[in-house]
Amino acid sequence: MRMRSIAIGALSALLLVSTAACAEDGDDGTGSGTGEGGIKTGLKVAFLPKQVNNPYFNTADNKGGKEAVTEFKGVYSETGPSEASPSAQVSYINTLSQQGTDVIVVSANDKDAICGALKEARQAGAKIVTFDSDTTPGCRDIFVNQATAEGIAKNQIKLISEAVGPEGGEIAILSATANATNQNAWITLMKTELAKPENSKLKLVDTVYGDDDDQKSFQEAQGLLAKHPNLKGIISPTTVGVAAAARYLSGSSFKGKVQLTGLGTPNQMKAYVNDGTVKSFALWNPADLGYLAAWAGAALASGKITGKQGEKFTAGKLGEYTIGADGVVVLGDPYVFTKDNVANFDF
Amino acid sequence: MAERIRRAAGSWDFLVLVALVLVVVIGAVSIEGVASPRFWRFVILEAIPIAVIALPLTLLIITGEIDLSVASVLGLSCTVMGKLWASGVHSLPVLVLVCLALGVLCGAVNGLFVTRFGLPSLAVTIGTLALYRGLAYVTLGDKAIADYPTSWTDGAVAPIPGLTIPWMIIVVAVLAILFAVVLHATPVGRGLYAIGNNDEASRFAGVAVGKTKFWLFVATGAMSALAGIFWTLRFASARADNGNGLELAVIAAVLLGGVSIFGGRGGLLGVVGAVVLLGVLRNALQLADVPANALTIVTGSLLIASVVGPNAVAIARARLRRRRPTTSIPTTP
């Protein structure tokens, strides 16, 4: 009998916690109207990352997304599973559609597995924006793509060319795995870029694969320098590779003599930018990505766009965007991090 | 009769059902959406694979064994189904039969190691948990097979006409009744409790201990594979990581349902109640915007409570029973 009352007490306590959380959150009460630029006010916009507790998504959602939602006077929330699994994400999509969310901004853990749930959410009236990682096009209204393959290739060649200097020289690529689709697409486009007359002084002498493994990438970077004594620069378009290569260079006699650039995250690269190993590297700015996705969702939910190719919408401070084929919006050129701005980021 | 009702009211099964009703009532009053039919649709869709695996696992745990490989069997069944579909096997009955056979095989391997070689099921199934998941990755790698006909994928989650509740619940209900009859109304079922309480003694009493356990492992494997087929169609995606970690959700439900981890005690009513209770609690808290980190704390605490709770109840009841005769017998100085 005592056990029973304890059990019941515990369960009621659990629910009390939940009701308190509910009350705290409360109903938005803002009601909906139409604000600036024809965007409705009071829109409920929910961000659903691949998983919570991930610095990349914290920046995208809580910095960029939240800023945009505040600008168009909506109600912002971020929710999601603690592990990056599609089935857990489905459960959260179901919850959001029951809560009458107007816009769901989601980074998909599986391009098909969350489709059924998204379909039910759309039937319940939600607009779906995918960002960072897309679903099958039929399952969402708009995909906000961080960068195009062309944009990345062009940017990487420009950065290495600037770092190496006008006299040019031999360069090499440290990639992830030999059969990574995105890496190979970028490498092919980088070769196209190198064939252009303005890059004629740069000569690609080698491409090696670090398999996105820290140790292997470190050894491959070491191997490149042993094999090519005249090497002037390395491009590593993968976050694992560029960080490992930077660690090797910064502790070697090649520091400052052999240039390095690539796609990296500020937290991993800060130290190497500050000690002079790396002049600049690139990635997209996740805060801008979240910001743009929120505005795209607001434009959809306000009926200003439907996701068709050629439609235009304004995304606050980022300006005007045009929807491309398959409902894809491209954020823009990769964002370049240097000594001057790297301290402003935390992801 | 009155004694029976009193005993039932004090049982863990009853507590679980009371807790379920309480959670539903409090949830419906305080959290917007819990009372809606859509809420129940989502809760049930989530609960179906857990319930399907929990049914045979309850019987297995009552005999004092455990199977930790259930979620890996589910994952392997998903990938084999996906692989076959991708290579041109487009008949659902064939796919179901192959997956069931695979589940039987996986369960038989577990059963053989435990009953033939006398190895502890905990160790054996930790091994096969990794082994079967590994085979799933061998089958599909990091690919996902997702191009099933919509008639299958929509069919798997279709509601009962006129309602929002998925029709699959009927299948699960029939299975639950089947398992409940076996456990609670047949000599085989009584044998399971005997094995769980003392398998040495029940062997001498003529219960086929090894054979019974072996077939329970097989049944658990088969039902896990069945859950895998549902999983694949519900999410329209066969992936090697499908159902990763689901074994914990299933075992949590079985233990919260009042089944003793040491065997010999528990029943299916409590387990089914616990599956629904955990589903409702999770979804309701999610609706109330409780963050994922807090949710795992709730599930963890409930699991601890479920291990401690029934034992505490049993100890309390035993003490009560012991005290009663001593008070009725006058003590001599």
Automatic annotation (TrEMBL), chain A:
The keyword S-adenosyl-L-methionine is assigned to this record: no
Main location: other
Pfam families linked to this entry: Peripla_BP_4
GO MF terms held by the record: carbohydrate binding
GO biological process terms on file: rhamnose transmembrane transport
Residue ranges constituting the Periplasmic binding protein domain according to the UniProt record: 45-304
Keywords: Signal
Any GO CC annotation of this UniProt entry: outer membrane-bounded periplasmic space
Domain of life: Bacteria
Cell location: Cell envelope
Signal sequence bounds: 1-23
Keyword Signal attributed: yes
Protein name, entry field: Rhamnose ABC transporter substrate-binding protein
UniProtKB/TrEMBL annotation, chain B:
Stretches that traverse the bilayer: 12-33, 39-61, 68-86, 92-114, 121-140, 160-183, 214-233, 245-262, 294-316
Membrane topology according to the record: Multi-pass membrane protein
Source organism, top-level taxon: Bacteria
Keyword Oxidoreductase found: no
GO molecular function ontology, one term from the record: transmembrane transporter activity
Keywords: Cell inner membrane, Cell membrane, Membrane, Transmembrane, Transmembrane helix, Transport
GO cellular component: plasma membrane
Record's subcellular location: Cell membrane
Protein name per its UniProtKB record: Autoinducer 2 import system permease protein LsrD
Species per Swiss-Prot/TrEMBL record: Virgisporangium aliadipatigenens
